[in-house]
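Posted in: Protein Modeling Q&A

I'm a second-year student putting together a small comparison for a lab meeting, and my supervisor asked me to include a predicted structure for Sodium channel protein Nach. I've never done this before, so apologies if this is the wrong subforum. The sequence is pasted below exactly as I got it from our records. If anyone can share the structure token output, I'd also love a short note on what stands out.
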Amino acid sequence: MESSLYNSPYILRYRHHLPRIIPKPTKTATLKQSIKKISKEYCAESSISGLKHIVDDNASRFERVIWKLTMISGLICSVSLVWITFMRYYRAPLVTTQMPEGVSVSKIIFPAVGICTNNRISKSAIKELARKLLQEERNKNYTEKQMLSLLLGLGLLYNNQPMNDKLVQPMKLHRALGDYDVNELMRNLTPRCEDLLIRCVWNEISMNCSDLFDFRLTMNGYCCTFNYLRQSDITFEDKDSGTRSIDMYKYGNKSNFDYEQGLKILMKLNTSDDFYYNLPLQGAQLQFSDAYDFPDAPSGSFAMQLINPNVQMVVSVKASFTEASRDIQHVPVKLRRCLFYDESSYLPFYTHSDCLLKCRMLFLFAKCKCTPFNMPKMVNKRTCDMRDVPCLKMFNAQSTTVRPDVDVVPPELELDMVGGGINCPMCYPSCSKTAYNYEFMNTKIWPDYLNTVPDSDRDDWL
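Accepted answer (user: helix_wrangler)
Welcome! Here is the predicted structure, written out as tokens:
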């Protein structure tokens, strides 16, 4: 009876006209509503292409779905691009910037310069050696001509290319020489700087060539070197020896940017003293290297140009100075892929060129139990002599090819033709280095005409 009373038409009509009690929204519902409203407003007003179509009330549901799919694919592409960029930075987290103020030329050290005649053995010196050897009892069966022919085999110490075994017999020559020091022997047989260099000028000041040039060891044997600041031809000194430090780069000859300044040399090639050419050309080799690196082409710190007779050569040198901040030293070496001069256990003073040189020398020592005379000496290591020529010839190509530090070596390098090259994974580039670029210009000289020019029309230094 009571239930039917509440459901009577009069009661229902009365309850319909009563004000409705709306429940108070929760905080979560309010937050969702606000986010929905703000997101819709952002999409409607955003300049990003496509967003406003997603919230457009006039657009059909199908159109909004299409726009949503388009936006999702764009978002995936953007995330992928960000990830690729991040991984590139992670693999090489370094930034290279150009110094806005540049570097003063006076602060950049002049490169080391070497002059090596293509004739590596002096005829007068080899004849004198032949006369001394013929006085030895062991060589009494040789004539002077036969001895000179035998001594031609000394060229194998420069050039490890194949030669006629009937004409050159290394072991026979080794016995004829007796007890000898290879470095002293080859040094005494090399044409002297005083016979090669006639006039020298440094920064517009005429100087004695003997005061500018030293007779030092390079990859081409003993040559006339300028500004070669390596203290000794005995390399890889002990860390405590103190013979080399970063302060050494503050010294050495420095040039000006003036075209007329720099180094000038007048050379005389005495073809009548030629005996053995390491290159089948008359003239000389002009070589450049870092002032403290051993001049060695396979190790990288080397540039060379041939000087022909009766030619004026002008060399323009451009320097590129790269300096790494110590702030990157916390980055693992495998990521930054460079080494500072004082953080290698392989060398007391690290440079990329010296690292490759040592790697190559240790390879040859492991194979031939000696190191070539035209590389720096190593403490407690024997210098190769004529007995070791066959071994040096066998491993010459491999010793001059350093395998790149990559997972897969490109077949285009054809390393299989040189025994796979040498692996030197410890040799990273130097973090700070001065690199040089050279431009050469040759002008033909006509001696018959120049000899008629009066002294008043010549340059003062000539």
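A couple of things worth pointing out for your meeting: The longest helix spans residues 61-91. The chain has a mean pLDDT of 80.
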